[in-house]
Structures are given as C-alpha cells and as structure tokens.
Amino acid sequence: MSAHIRAATAADIDGVLALEQLFPSDQLNRAALRRFLRVPNARVWVAVQGKVIVGDVILLLRLNADYGRVYSVVVAPAARGQGLGARLIASAERAAKAEGRNRLRLEVRSDNTAARALYVKRGYRVVATLKSYYDDGADGLRLEKALRASPIGHSPSSHQA
Ligand SMILES: CC(C)(COP(=O)(O)OP(=O)(O)OC[C@H]1O[C@@H](n2cnc3c(N)ncnc32)[C@H](O)[C@@H]1OP(=O)(O)O)[C@@H](O)C(=O)NCCC(=O)NCCS
To answer: Whose CA is nearest to atom 41 of ligand 1?
Structure first.
C-alpha cells in the first residue's frame, strides 16, 4: 500500500512519539511535540499508510535565521527503502524554501550510513564535524543544502571579505 504525506495534527501525537522512540538518540517528548504542532516556527509532517503513521519529519524555522533545520526524520523499519525518507525531506525543503530560507541544515551521527546516503543523494554537504555531539559520545556531522541557486559569479566564498 502506498503512503501519503500530510501535515501532522494533535491526533497524530501518539503515532509520532511511537516512531520517534524507535530512534533512541532523539530526545523528543510529548510536551515538545505538542509545542512543535502549535508554534508557527515548527512544522511536522507524517507519512501515513492506511491509518498507520510510518514516518515523520520535523522542521524548525527559527526566527531571523536564513536557514531551516530538520530536527528529526524517521521512517518505520517496515516502510524503509521505499522513498519515504526522501519524500519527507523533500516536504521540509519545499516548506523552508517557501518560507524564504536559503539553506536547510541538519545534524546526523557520523555512523548513520543510511541517513548519510539519503542526504548525499539529495545534495547535502558536510559543513562541520561535531566532536562527541551525541550523548553516547558519537561524533555528529552538520550537513547543509542550498535551497536556491546562487546568482552567477556569486558563489558563497565570493562574499568573504
Ligand atoms: C534514514 C531513514 C529516514 C531513511 O528512510 P527511507 O525511507 O528508508 O529512505 P528512502 O527509501 O527514501 O531512501 C532514499 C535514499 O537514501 C539512501 N538510503 C536509505 N537507506 C539506506 C540504507 N539502509 N543503506 C544505504 N543507503 C540508504 C539511498 O540512497 C536511497 O536511495 P535509493 O533507494 O534510490 O538507493 C530511515 O533509515 C530511518 O528512519 N532511520 C532511523 C532514523 C534516522 O536515522 N533518521 C535520520 C537522523 S539524521
């Protein structure tokens, strides 16, 4: 059965929390998720198969930042490998761009080969290594993707003094 992606509502909280618990390095709790669903600077989408939530992505749009940040993306193990992770990230990219952000940023464990492969395929590049970023001491990588083409002759480096 194919899945569709839609904006999450308060009725999805249990399903999203159940999914997020599959991914132990994430700290998302009920209060934080409720808040993400309420405030204008956060967006949550779910991938739904039948009535079951099989994926979610959380986008944060901090005020006055020119980038958006993917806080979390998770796909249920049984639904992986069908393009849902890529579709969820694409939803976050579209929304960040529509909100005027120039870049999308995220952090990933350096040993998370599946997620890293997904991001590389979607055009993300490593902009920083984050030593001992995770609770268990694992290193992280900060990745970014430009959401708009730079004007010709104005690569990011040409803005440096
Ligand atoms: C990372 C995750 C979201 C990917 O979801 P998914 O729906 O399986 O990914 P997709 O099917 O959209 O895959 C898109 C691309 O990512 C890459 N990819 C995904 N899973 C992969 C794996 N296990 N090994 C290698 N590459 C993988 C492939 O390039 C794939 O494209 P292809 O199928 O055309 O080769 C999923 O594995 C997951 O929920 N993991 C646990 C949570 C997590 O790590 N989140 C990211 C935190 S930053």
So the answer is: 74
Q: Which of 14-23, 96-105, 121-130 has the lowest mean pLDDT?
A: 14-23
Domain count of the fold of the chain: 1
Give me 112's structure tokens. 């998370």
How many of the other CB atoms lie within 10 Å of CB of 85? 23
User: Domain range for residue 103?
Assistant: 4-155
Ligand 1: which residues within 6 Å by Cβ? 23, 73-75, 80-86, 106, 108, 112-115, 117-118, 121
Q: What is the mean pLDDT of the chain?
A: 92
Ligand 1, from 75, 87, 88, 104: best to mutate by most atoms within 8 Å of Cβ? 75
Q: pTM for the whole thing?
A: 0.93
Residue 160 placed within a domain: no
Q: How far apart are CA 70 and CA 136, in angstroms?
A: 21
Residue of the nearest CA to atom 16 in ligand 1?
118
Q: Which of 20-24, 60-64, 80-84, 146-150 has the lowest mean pLDDT?
A: 20-24
Strand-pair partners of 49: 52
Tell me the β-bridge partners of 25.
none
